[in-house]
Design brief:
Distance between the termini: 37 Å
CATH topology: TIM Barrel
Order of helices and strands: HEEEHEHEHEHEHEHEHHEH
CATH superfamily: Dihydropteroate synthase-like
Number of domains: 1
Length: 294
């Protein structure tokens, strides 16, 4: 059941993405315009086959080159599939999957920002030392007690996502009394904890598809501006997810059109970063959005 709370009129009056600046390894990145984050899954079992890529070789080179040429601002590399019911992967195997790719990308495309998608502090540390610029953690430090301390010492931006449980159990934990209020409280607590460990730049991700029903996902998207009350950049990751393909009665492979439609909606609701499988289409959506709302 969808909760009845609504954003305050003050939050509703804020139009579109707020502007933020991130400090990353001695340089400032201005989010004057929403950013496109391209997904690179260095896994054999991510939910969308088109996002999977080998850790090295021509396939990786071609995929990265294509994403950069299409306008990706950030590349998000993950070595652990977080789809519902995903198989466990050891820390060592996750590191072996992501580090060679990060090293190659940072050398071949030094201006591109690299994010490592991991909830493990050891993977995050190895990735940053190899060239990564951000850590994208689906658990916001919940699944590894050393993560926040590690990121604070690394002095890089941190993407904190909302999730309950873990990838194996999250879809059994979708009961909320008021999902908007609970997520706002969650991010307030997580942000305070991040500050305690010296993390200066925090980006929040509502966690679409993680411990949420399809209806709850749409409610969060409709009320995305609610989270602007936190004065933090907002990342939206809805590309080809079940909230789209289940609603349309299609497969993830057929969910590009639906993804594009919701990406435009997310931009009008204040998204600062779109995490996407299809960079070209997302960049075109952003171009049209900027034309509509200069």
């Amino acid at each position: 059941m969808i909760p009845a709370s609504n954003p305050s009129s003050e939050i509703e009056d804020k139009l579109f993405p707020l502007k933020y600046t991130l400090q990353i390894k001695g340089r400032f990145v201005c989010l004057n315009s929403p950013q496109i984050m391209g997904i690179l899954n260095l896994t054999p079992d991510s939910f969308f086959g088109g996002s999977r890529v080998k850790t090295s070789g021509k396939e990786l080179i071609d995929r990265v080159t294509k994403m950069v040429s299409e306008g990706a601002d950030i590349l998000d590399l993950g070595g652990y599939s977080t789809r519902p019911g995903a198989a466990e992967v050891t820390v060592e195997e996750e590191i072996q999957r992501v580090i060679p790719a990060i090293e190659w990308i940072s050398e071949a495309f030094p201006s591109i920002l690299i994010s490592v998608d991991t909830f493990r502090s050891k993977v995050a540390e190895a990735a940053v030392h190899s060239g990564a610029h951000l850590v994208n953690d689906i658990s916001a430090g919940t699944l590894d007690s050393k993560m926040l301390e590690t990121v604070g010492k690394l002095e890089i931006p941190y993407i904190a996502m909302h999730m309950r449980g873990n990838p194996q159990t999250m879809q059994k934990q979708t009961n909320y009394s008021d999902i908007l209020v609970e997520l706002l409280n969650y991010f307030e607590e997580k942000t305070a904890l991040c500050r305690k460990f010296g993390i200066k730049d925090v980006i929040i991700d509502p966690g679409f598809g993680f411990a949420k029903t399809v209806d709850q996902n749409y409610w969060l998207l409709q009320n995305l501006k609610y989270f602007q009350a936190l004065s933090l950049p907002i990342l939206v990751g809805i590309s080809r997810k079940s909230m789209i393909y289940k609603t349309l009665g299609v497969s993830p492979e057929e969910a590009l059109n639906g993804s594009t439609a919701l990406h435009m909606f997310a931009l009008t609701k204040g998204a600062n970063i779109l995490r996407v499988h299809d960079v070209k289409e997302a960049k075109e959506t952003l171009t049209l959005f900027n034309k509509l709302y200069p």
